[in-house]
Amino acid sequence: FFFLMIRRPPRSTQSRSSAASDVYKRQLIHKVLVANRGEIACRIIRTAKRMGVRTVSVYSDIDRYSKHVELADEAYHIGPSPSSQSYLNSNKILEVAHDTKSKALHPGFGFLSENAEFADQCDREKIIFIGPPSSAIRSMGSKSESKNIMIKANVPVVPGYHGENQDKEFLLEQARKIGYPVLIKAVSGGGGKGMKIVHNDGEFFDQLESAKRESLKSFRDDRVLVEKFIQKPRHIEIQVFGDKFQNYVYLFERDCSIQRRHQKVIEEAPSNISPELRQKIGQSAIDAARAVNYYNAGTVEFIFDTETNEYYFMEMNTRLQVEHPVTEMITKQDLVEWQLLVASGYKLPLRQEDLKIYGHAVEARVYSENPYNNFLPCTGPISFLRDPQQQEGYVRLETGVREKDQISIYYDPMISKLITCLLYTSDAADDLLCVDLGGRRIIKKKK
Fold first, then answer.
1. What are residue 185's phi and psi, to 5 degrees?
2. DSSP for 100-117?
3. What are phi and psi of 61, to 5 degrees?
4. What is the model's pTM?
5. What are the helix (H) ranges across 32-142?
6. H/E segment holding residue 268
7. pLDDT tens by residue, 335-373
8. Are 316 and 298 in contact (CB under 8 A)?
9. Catalytic residue flag (residue 278)
């Protein structure tokens, strides 16, 4: 079992966004379609219901009896189990939105959440896309274009080549100018795909071809860029929010340095950077958002060089992040509520000076994997499940599964997230509350 020691933080008077109340000055979206599944769909539905917004779920064949279907006010079938025929079927999803008179659509994360064409399609069909403008999604979806935009906005970027020339001899020359080791990255990449570390000239062409093949297979685009490889990095990301009135705030940082196969596993907020650096990197994140006329929730990811204390822009995720609950725990804000408010035409609920850090939060992602088979995804029925006891503000579980549910082959193996919060002080070893992450016990029957 994994044990996390926490100390209860003081209760804050800002337990919810200050804009949240039973009566809103401006009319809220009255009904929202949640174009997702699993734990994120359940999490969005929970906040929408608290705000009095009706919810519509969509589901594939295999998700017919899933938790997110049960929680929503209405639920509609959209196709077979493969995501390409259901959760990525934009025409069918929008057909359901029209049939149910849903005013808005929340894409969650994954699936259609960062699809600029889908955001455009929503706009054409007069459905509010709860996210940023399609122009921002498009600009930030290209690693090379986004870095060029950041350079113009005076946001630090990793030294490297981000241009269009893909000639292999030219790229080799750029690698020599940058200085080894270098990182070859897919222009349209994500999740570690199309990413290769090169230590010398002898490795370069083989790794270049490997990165291009992987990029073409994953993203239908074999273009790459070449950057300096930071050898002792930390992954620091900033939660930003904007409204349609050009107001921006940052809700502090998350440290997502604990990763496996370039995928985040443990996230925490805040990191241990200094208050001065926190303000500086937060302002850089706002500059990044402002450069693309961003609004709604976004995350600006930076790589932090622990040897020089310098930070560099990596990418901007134009959606709500998987790890957003740790930010909610330390700020006592509901980011989905903020999303719904901004989409309804409200200004941001708080100004920068109103935002404070309350404690320290850690999130552990729970995956359905087989530890005896190289942690590959594991499928089958959940025969036994016991969730840990939740305590508001201290222990939180985001999940999309119940006992007897099926873990299928069709979707991501992450099935839930456990988040805990503590008082971040020098004497945090005193008076500790011990939370056993093993309390979330999941046993699946062998096939």
1. -130, 140
2. TT-SEEE--SSTTTT-HH
3. -50, -50
4. 0.86
5. 38-50, 67-71, 90-99, 116-124, 134-141
6. strand 263-269
7. 999 999 999 999 999 999 999 999 999 999 999 999 899
8. yes
9. no
